[in-house]
Amino acid sequence: MWRVLGSSPSADKTWKVFWCRGRGQNISRVMPREMGPDGAPGQVVPWRKVLWEHQPFPDNYVDRRFLEELRRNEGIRQYRYWAVVKEAGFVGQQLSSVAIFITLWLYMEQGLLSPERLLLTCLLSTLLGYGLHQTLTPLTKSGCELRTRLADLQSATIFLSFTFGFSPVLKTLTESVSTDTVYAMSAVMLLAHLVSFPYAHPSPPGSLSLNAALFASVCLASRLPGALHTFAMLSCALLVFALWPCLLQRLREYAPNQFTGLCVAVCVGGVVGLASQSPGGAVLLALALGTVTLFCPLLLVRLQRHKDNIHGPWDEAEIHEELGHILHS
Amino acid sequence: MVLRIFFPQCCNQADSGLLVGHWMPGHDSAVVLAVIHYPFIPGQVKQYLQQMRSQSGVELSVLGSWSIPKEGQEHMESFLRDLSTIFPQDCWLQLSRTIGKMGFNCHVIYQDLNGSTTSCKAAKKNGKIKGCDRESGEDNEEELGDEEKMILIHYEQRKVMQSQLHPIEVPDTDPPSELREVFQTVARSRPLFFLDRYDDGPLKSTHWQSQGREASIIVELLKQASVPLCLLISWLLSKWTRICNFSLFNLYPLRFLSSKLSTCDQWSYRTEHMRTLSSVKPAAGHTPFMRKANILVSLLVDVALGVLLMSWLYRDNRISIIANALLPAADHVAKELEELLQWLMGAPAGLKMNRALDQVLGRFFLYHIHLWISYIHLMSPFIETILWYGGLSACLGITFALSLLSDMVALLTFHIYCFYVYGARLYCLKIYGLSSLWRLFRGKKWNVLRQRVDSCSYDLDQLFIGTLLFTILLFLLPTTALYYLVFTLLRLVVVMFQGVLHLSVDIINSFPLFAVGLRVCQPYQLAEGVKFRVLCEEPGTALHLLMEINPLKCSAVVQRYRVPTYSCYPKDSWAALVKKLFVGELIYPWRHKTTKSD
Amino acid sequence: MHQRQRAGALKKSSSQKCPEAPADNFRGSTKKHSICMVSDFFYPNMGGVESHIYQLSQCLIEKGHKVVVVTHAYGRRKGVRYLTNGLKVYYLPLQVMYNQSTATTCFHSLPLMRCVFVRERITVVHAHSSFSAMAHDSLFHAKTMGLNTVFTDHSLFGFADVSSVLTNKLLTVSLCDTNHIICVSYTSKENTVLRAALNPEIVSVIPNAVDPTDFTPDPSFRRDDRITIVVISRLVYRKGIDLLGGIIPELCLKYPDLHFLIGGEGPKRIVLEEVREKYQLHDRVRLLGALEHKDVRGVLVQGHIFLNTSLTEAFCMAIVEGASCGLQVVSTRVGGIPEVLPEELITLCEPTVRSLCAGLETVIARQRVGSLPPPESIHSRVRTLYTWRNVAERTEKVYDRVSTEEVLPLDRRLLRLRSHCGPVAGSVFAFMAVLDFLFLLLLQWLVPDRVMDVAVDATGPRSMWGQGSSIKLNATKGAANPDLFGE
Prior knowledge:
Number of strands of chain C: 16
Strand order of the largest sheet of chain C: 3-4-2-1-7-8-9-10
Oligomer: heterotrimer
Strand content of chain C: 15-25%
Structural class of chain A: mainly alpha
CATH class of the largest domain in chain C: Alpha Beta
Helix content of chain C: 40-55%
């Protein structure tokens, strides 16, 4: 049988045919040509999968137990469509956040939004968000120490003072660089932010994603007409890119239902906001949101069926234990 | 088993006699050093050899006999064989030569302890070496197991004696090679060669005759005469050293300055040379001798070149011409620099730089040039005097003049150096800051203890401030980099000029003129190895080879005998230099005292 | 079933004619082959593949075959060198890319390889190790030139990630028209058959071997006041050094007389050093650093237990060496390891810290009460299991079989590539095969085979080496070599 399979041109995936059929059938009917050591005992001994024993079989002998230990799709996870959609909502939400930020910047650049108003709004929403965050923080959470209010205040002071101090410098920073370059850089950086964002654990935000977003916002802010504009824009960026994901994570943990609603709200807000400035952009955003939250999960669930993973004794063993404690306890 | 006999060419024509030489243990070979002629008294020969042995430290012995048969000496054969009983040896050679034939006839007689003798004849029949015919009574039938062969290797005794086989240092662990031992044996048995054919002693011998006795007498006289000169120089040197060691000169600024001036370097270097030269003790061994000779020759050449330079310089009022040309030149350079800065402060080559920073940097450097011009003008009345006195230093050697020139160039381009340092420091700071902030940007940090990049979770405020600074530094980098680039190029021009000067000084200081001269005039004195030529390969005689000395390659001579100096070559490779330039580390043309290269 | 019986009977009759081992030299194949071993990995590099090639070549030379080895240049070691018994090694000037493996363009090595194959009159090309680009190149060119090919796979590979998907595809292409494949264990065979989509009948299992005379026990080196566990492996992730880092503190806290002796070097050394530092075990855990092959035995005989924590292993030579030195072996149950030693010589554990600790503890307990077999008996049990002569005999049979098979001509080779390797990769490599063939034609036109010199045989039936060498004194005219006088 094997000779036939091996030499016929249609026998691609020989092994597949082999392990599909080979289980029940007696495949040792066709004896391979003789080769290998032959100690030759008189009676038939069963083949054993050992090397240390000289067995009366040729070296290229194929037993019926060949590939017996092959296993397929071990430990596979079955996904449900709506659960995946819900998780993907976070991605859509982040996409919309970026869109909202860009919308705000567009408003600022065209002078439709004064920096004072933006600052005021930011301040109010920060206070609101901070209160919400505090209420959602459980009082007795073992493991990690809680940040004191003083530390929060300290951080806030640092943000504000540095941003305020540097905003005149930042204003002149990109003066000589052409506008297209700045836009391109910002676009790349925002894309990097979206790609490298740690969607599974957004709090604390990942270094690369946060830094890329801040870099982009500095680039954009430096194009605004005044130093105060720059300051307001940077504060806004801090709010959107650094603090908002922390709050969302809390919501996801302690109020999953509201979290879903909030995601939908942000998505809608992003699309509507962008539509007020550029309808084309809004359509694109809506398409992107639809793809990310609805189509991609569908694709994942559909493709799940075709998964075909082979396992066997040749696999590299994985170390499942957490061995870090030996060193860092 | 092949027996090898090294035979001096000068003994080819010698009268019959005894072969004196040395058996080399463990190599199956013998070096023939001389032939002691008939007639002799065996006792005297033994006594003479004893004496030579103690003088030279070579295990000299009588190896065998040498004969050129003449008419009426047919009984010679038995006589020669009898000689072997007078000078008991394990192995007795009988070499004889027939006039008109190229090859020698060789016989080896083995004497066992029990007195039985075996003789081996190195006569070939049908191209194959015949076994030995034994003369002992017991086992005539038995053939000797291993075939005995003999190679006669002719060597030129004078050349071998004078030549030095390279490499000189060999690891002690290996036993010396056979060739090396041959050379050593010949060189060490110099006392043997004092006695010659024309002496009126009881013994007469043939070997390399020492030539040119008159010349050696002159050399000897010169040696004697140089002793008081050496003493004088060393006395002067000791005074000089004492002055140098005054605590005043060891104060920080002076010492720092002197370590940076190449003239001071050259001065201390020459002092050291003079100290080496003026030591009264004769050089022991080949290497110190060559070193001394090289230093002496290079010193003489140096001074001669210096005097030539001086004679050119002090004629036709050339000094004042140079001095008058120098000031306008410096002014011109300053003006050019000013224009360059003005250009940089605009939009150089269409590059868009950060305007504010550009202006600040430009003004800062302009102020420096202003300072520099005033300094030059302050100096102008003294330049001619300085040049005149500086030119005098050429009488100490051209190296001094060149070093002085290099120092003057360094002083006159001090402004360029300053610009370079400012630019480089600023740039270096930027690069350093950017690289660490780039790590922060990616959420990594440098772990000093493990010398690697670890991942690290930063706080929000750290991230925020880091990114802010990163952005600012990134946008200001092109401006700084451009200033740095321009000034580095200027600096490189100066460094290259100084480098050329240093290189020429170093070549004069370290080039082994004496060794190269020796290589050119008497190539055999520095040997790298030997090569063999077949002299004759007739059936019936042993193989005759001529050993010729392979002289050391010229590049190897230079490499081996280079006088160690403070290296002035760039310490690091080109790649390292480019990297240094890229990172903004300072580059210097100064010699590195720590890396004294041998 | 009855067919197998018949085969058994056949074999019985044949073996009655020719009894056992040493006489085998004269039995069976009278045909002598000219074999070219190709791999990127060879001396001066040291490792399992390297010693496999060397030992196998030596045994094949002993059996009268002609063997040359082809590898890439290692530093200043380039050109042709001779090793023991006139084993000729070509160090070809090919650029090393990564991890001692050469870069490949599929074509640039053809002129050199052809030169070697033609000059040496090669009949069988035997490539080693799937990590070696040179081995795959040589297979490709050998098929183009119409030579028979054999490939030995020394390693295991997973299927789960992108890199393995790519490498498995390449292996499929490389092996689809190779005459025969040799694997070192049954697990390795299953793996290779799956990876390269092969007919299992053309895959033989021939284990590695160990020179038992190099690894003899000597209990006098053991210290009786302690129990020593020996670990000898490269300190890398695949060897399970993280597991070892977990085992050491756990057992050392429990048994105060337990000592560890760890030989080898690698990036995971820092894990062991940290463990040693944290638990203050400097006097009980000794890290010996990289060991030379000749020093391994000296370390092994100091121990009572040999521990192997590998996460994957095709055929573990280290445990055979350990057992050959009389040590009780404890190992993880991964890859081909369960096939290597009989149950009474090895304690198999799961690749977890807990299981390994439990296994070690039972062995320690048995050592305490003295119920372990003495080292000499373990050695005598192991010494006959794996010998290079046996490997060579079995490999010889593969060569015999291969030499009777036909090498696919170009048209059928192209068909096979297209049908066997999928439409895309198959077409691409079929195109490459055509290009390679054209390149070969060009080379043959430039320098025809018949004008190429035939290399002097150093080994094999008509070798110069074998005929008792007498050094003739060739005093050539002109300059002779001063080496005559030997340094």
